[in-house]
Amino acid sequence: MTANPSPDRRIRRTRAALHAALLALIAERPLSRITVSDVSKRADINRSTFYEHYDDVPALAADACTGIFDELIAAAPVMLPTDDPAEQRRGRDELAALFAHIAAHADLYRALLGPDGSAQVITHLHRRLTVSIHINLTRPHTGTHADDPEAVPHDPAASYLAGALLGTASDWLYHGCPGTPRELVGALWTGLPRMPSPHLSPGR
Q1: Which candidate, 133, 126, 75, 68, places its Cα nearest to that of 99?
Q2: Domain with CATH 1.10.10.60 in the chain
Q3: Taking Cα atoms as reference points, which of 37, 49, 41 lies closest to residue 10?
Q4: Mean pLDDT of successive 10-residue segments in the chain (204 residues)?
Q5: Which CATH superfamily is domain 7-55 in?
């Protein structure tokens, strides 16, 4: 006789079904037009079961996209305002990787960041990016964001750069991702200011 799955295993299985249902629906319609009933029906669960796990569809979207967000955060560029040619090349390479990632998931990001997206999801992504950029600015060359904390001290510069990244990504998606990621970076890079980072001591 097969043992019943553990509560934790049932929770993971139910949430995986909800995540898959939402991502499938996002490919069909704007996030704002997806209801709890839509997700529950696609996942083949009861509405009451949905509410055992999430308060609403935006909360589900924020959780369902965590894996995708983690990929984006792993690609988040250091973006140090520097005149060092090697550092500038590294920054351009990382920016190109970030926008290549966005292009590869264009339908999802368009649904989440576009006019019919969710403010809750956008705030979640902005916060995660702010944390990763703060780490980049204060501890460059760490090489990974796997162990980034959930929160960091108030950092206006990191928040500004995170907002600039999201705004650029949203505009690029709105226009259909014209050109290649490297062409976008080339156009963006020429407009980035070069100034000493407030997080780094002179000579670093």
Answers
A1: 75
A2: 7-55
A3: 49
A4: 65 93 89 93 96 92 77 63 73 84 84 81 85 80 68 88 88 93 87 51 41
A5: Homeodomain-like (1.10.10.60)
Cα 71 to Cα 48, 66, 102, 198: the distances in Å are 32, 9, 10, 27
Q: Are 195 and 81 in contact (CB under 8 A)?
A: yes
Q: What are phi and psi of 139, to 5 degrees?
A: -135, 70
In single-letter form, the type of residue at position 50 comes to F
- Number of neighbouring beta carbons within 10 Å of residue 30: 14
What totals of helices (H) and strands (E) does the chain contain, helices first?
Answer: 10, 0
pTM for the model stands at 0.71
Chain centre to alpha carbon of residue 68? 6
Q: DSSP characters for 41-71?
A: HHHT--HHHHHHH-SSHHHHHHHHTHHHHHH
